[in-house]
Amino acid sequence: MSGKKYLKVFLQNLDHIPNLQISLNMLPSVAKVNITHSDSQYSLPQNLTIMSKLAFSIGEVKAEVEAELERFFSGGTSDPVFIDVTIPALGDSAYFEILDRIIQLGMNLEKYPNVTKSLDEEGIRDYFLPHLNSISQSHSATGETFNKKGRTDILIQDNK
After folding, report:
1. CA nearest neighbour of 47 among 7, 6, 5, 10
2. With respect to CATH, is domain 6-73 assigned 3.30.70.60?
3. pLDDT above 90 covers what percent of the chain?
4. Hey, CA dihedral for 56, 61, 67, 71, is it positive or negative?
5. What is the distance between the alpha carbons of residues 101 and 117, in angstroms, rounded to a whole number?
6. Looking at the predicted structure, is the pLDDT value of residue 106 above 50?
7. Alpha-helical regions (H) of the chain
8. Full-prediction pTM beyond 0.70?
9. Contact 42, 80 (CB under 8 A)
């Protein structure tokens, strides 16, 4: 049997389905995430069906989806996005959230090559800065900044 394999994700709460669909669609191994209807008495009326890209096994997709689900549900639903984080307290969670946002925007830009085809490295960096500045009200991101420790391509600092 050589049918197309897929992965089903069953949630305990339907409130997260649209955001989770968007998040899972951005994974490198995922071709498509559909919200599917279920008549089963053992699940909620909707769940997610995830199709893999041809180059990935269903096992690879499962591992990547499980990691994304862990990241997605690790914070509380009312957690602020960097609002109370200060640079001295910038922990691993905030650092990796910033990296996730940069990677997510980069992956989306790859889907629209006409947007960036005329930009050089500095132009692409400048394209990222407004997005990074919209993440937090208490931090700002600047490009090619010189500070006491030298030059950095992107500097995120506390506005206080």
Report:
1. 10
2. yes
3. 7
4. positive
5. 21
6. yes
7. 17-25, 58-73, 92-110, 113-116, 121-135
8. no
9. no
DSSP code of residue 77: T
Domain boundaries, the chain: 6-73, 87-158
| CB crowding 99-114: b at 16 or more within 10 Å, else e | eebeeeeeeeeeeeee
Closest by CA position to 28, among listed 79, 103, 136: 103
| CA distance linking residue 68 with residue 80, whole number of Å | 19
Burial of 77 (0-12, 13-18, 19+ CB in 10 A): exposed
**Kind and range of the H or E run holding 33:** strand 30-37
The residue whose two tokens read 């400048």 is 126
Within 10 angstroms of residue 7's Cβ, the number of other Cβ atoms is: 19
The one-letter code for the residue type at 90 is: L
Calpha distance 139→141 (Å, rounded): 7
Residue type, 46: Q
pLDDT score at 90:
59
